[in-house]
Amino acid sequence: MRADLVVTSGGISKGDHDVVKETLSALGTVEFHEVAMQPGKPQGFGRVFDEQTPIITLPGNGVSAYVSFEVFVLPAIRRMMGRTPYRRPMVHAVLASDLQSRPGVRQYVRGVFEVTHRGAKVTPSSVPVRTWWARWPRPMR
Questions:
Q1: Of 118, 100, 117, residue with least CA distance to 109
Q2: How many whole angstroms separate alpha carbon 89 and alpha carbon 72?
Q3: Residue 61's closest CA among 87, 93, 28, 38?
Q4: Greatest alpha-carbon span in the chain
Q5: In which band, very low, low, confident or very high, does the pLDDT at 31 lie, cut at 50, 70 and 90?
Q6: What φ, ψ does residue 134 adopt, rounded to 5°?
Q7: Is the peptide bond before 39 cis (omega within 30 degrees of 0)?
Q8: Does pLDDT of 76 surpass 80?
Q9: How far is Cα 81 from Cα 36, in angstroms, rounded to an integer?
Q10: What pTM, to 2 d.p., does this model score?
Q11: What span, in angstroms and rounded, lies between the C-alpha atoms of 105 and 140?
Q12: Please, are residues 6 and 20 in contact by the beta-carbon 8 Å criterion?
């Protein structure tokens, strides 16, 4: 198999069914770390196979994997392509309610963005990650 990059999702936490760490260690050098971000704490990176193909391992939770892809994988792919980092468009908005954040942890919070007659505002969502992901619209088959 030939690949420029391998990306996996799931199986890298500390549970009994998280066997990806053990499997990948036989294929190359992969390091696993808990990064100071939420969602997306467990991450892994390294090189696998005889070709020393780069690998990035993402958490199994869908929201965590998506956030981790945006933070780690997309910039890596763009760099491998010789492209500049992608910067999402930024908009100034007022936060509709206060948020609590743990010191030293980058937190990505779901919210609803809307433009009102007073300007833009973001209302943080209080829906738990797993519930929110289950209600995410899926394409029709």
A1: 100
A2: 18
A3: 38
A4: 59
A5: very high
A6: -65, -30
A7: yes
A8: yes
A9: 27
A10: 0.81
A11: 37
A12: no
